[in-house]
Amino acid sequence: MSTDENKQVMEQTDKEALRKVLTELEAKLDDLYARSDRLDKSIAESKEALEKVHKRRVNFYKARLQKMFAQWNMQQLNHHHHPPHLSQQAQIQLQAQIMAQLQSYNQSQNQSQNTPGGGVLFPPFPPIPTPPQ
User: Fold this and answer.
1) pTM higher than 0.85 for the full model?
2) Is the pLDDT score of 20 beyond 80?
3) Which residue from 121, 122, 128 is spatially nearest to 67, judged by alpha carbons?
4) Can you tell me the distance from the alpha carbon of 91 to that of 114, in angstroms, rounded to the nearest whole number?
């Protein structure tokens, strides 16, 4: 074989090898694009699911807070409201009860200031309902 023939054979072999490598690379690139599309779809689905969970939690906690505030406001109204139809004696008794509650509250405040933590004790909240699923 002459050198020209060797060059032609080598060039053909190199071209075939390059075509084969390019074909493999194109197949791998197509596979990567397919994986990327699946990953993008999974990310979008996860984002939607997280947004739904977040929305449910926000609604749940809003409802729970509204319920607690409503109960708290009703308790305040029941304890401190002076209806106009009360007799003079009933109003005096109600004022005495309120004063006794204030005194016990002030005493508990003084005691809590003497505690090492100095914290204020609040009344316990009603039981927390479980969220709907």
Assistant:
1) no
2) yes
3) 128
4) 35
